[in-house]
Design brief:
heterodimer, A: Heat Shock Protein 90, 3-stranded mixed beta sheet, 4 helices, B: alpha/beta, 5-stranded mixed beta sheet
Chain lengths: ~170, ~110
């Protein structure tokens, strides 16, 4: 069921090579972010900087899902990482009655300072957009999906932003 | 599973918060408590050379601490940030807002 729709490539190509795709089921809890990091750290088909990008973006997506989209159906979600010649895909599969609200937050990437709670809000989605090549959210009848794609990045590349233009944003307080 | 570890040490006459492990949505409250306490007390250096990830929650703490320090007349700097910390700060779009130093002499 979860794999009923293949995630978009960066571009459609030959598909993932054997051993370059891995899936993890996560319990939807605050600790899940630690499990996700351990999962991504263990993927030996990723270059170091690819791992960093995926870990940073993945943490933000997962944190948003757990904190703002709960309860997830079955109390869990599935995460898949696949590497192809044209790029890497990070996919989340879950079912949430609050998916529309989640998608709305993702569409407004401007960070705001919440003076009441002394917290910046919206930074995580900005990070996801800047770290990834593309981000797509797809509600489904049975499974909701989030797909992020990343450009390949060889180890030893000194430019942390290679292949990505990171826009400078203004800070807005409310 | 790697855990967050934060210790206070004195290096070259400066109080340094040495942070190692992940600063993420699960661990950031300890990071928040110690950073806010330190910047309230005086100039603060945060050694982030051994940080294995830095989420938006952790970045938000650094940004709020910068504001607090500015209001109190205290300086804050990030010492020797790891590669993933630099990437995280840059990915916010305002990476140049964070005062990064490579040695304590720059503080």
């Amino acid at each position: 069921m979860l794999a009923a729709e293949e995630e978009p490539g960066p571009e459609a190509d030959e598909g993932p090579r054997p051993g370059s795709r891995a899936t993890q089921i996560l319990v939807a809890s605050a600790e899940a972010v630690m499990s996700l990091e351990a999962f991504i750290d263990g993927l030996d088909f990723l270059a170091r900087r690819e791992r960093y990008r995926i870990k940073l973006a993945g943490d933000e997506i997962l944190d948003n899902l757990v904190r703002h989209s709960a309860p997830l159906a079955g109390g869990s979600l599935s995460v898949r990482v696949s590497r192809r010649r044209s790029g890497i895909a990070l996919s989340f599969f879950f079912r949430s009655p609050k998916f529309a609200a989640f998608a709305a937050r993702c569409s407004d990437p401007e960070p705001l300072f919440d003076a009441t709670h002394r917290r910046w809000r919206g930074i995580g989605m900005v990070m996801c957009r800047n770290l990834s090549h593309s981000m797509k959210l797809r509600p489904g009848r049975f499974v909701d999906r989030i797909f992020l794609t990343f450009l390949l990045e060889p180890d030893g590349d000194d430019d942390a932003r290679s292949g990505h233009d990171i826009p400078r944003l203004s800070l807005i307080e409310k | 599973m790697t855990q967050l570890d934060i210790s206070l040490k004195n290096e070259e006459g400066h109080e340094v918060l040495a942070v190692s492990g992940p600063v993420n949505s699960y661990t950031f409250t300890e990071f928040q408590e110690k950073v806010y306490k330190a910047i309230k007390a005086g100039d603060t250096v945060i050694d982030m050379s051994k940080v294995t990830t830095l989420s938006s929650a952790g970045i938000g703490v650094l940004m709020a601490a910068l504001d607090d320090g500015e209001a109190a007349g205290h300086k804050l700097a990030v010492l020797r940030p790891s590669e993933i910390v630099v990437l995280a700060m840059d990915s916010t779009g305002f990476g140049d807002r964070f005062p990064v130093i490579q040695t304590l002499k720059e503080f």
